[in-house]
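Everyone, describe these structure tokens:
***
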Amino acid sequence: MPTADPLSEAANAVRELNESLAACGITLPSLRIDLPSCGFSATPRPLVELGRCNLETARRLTLVLREAAR
């Protein structure tokens, strides 16, 4: 459920994505909130940093996404 605080909302999105990926046997070690995108504006719009992953993780993620698209 969305909150009024964009940073909290982003933290929840990161947590939920991490949990969903883990349920599929996938770990993105650099998954986090991109703090520079939070900025100091009146309306912060945080981004989620997916980061880098090894080839095995990329292939597993591709497989899971293809299966989900069916």
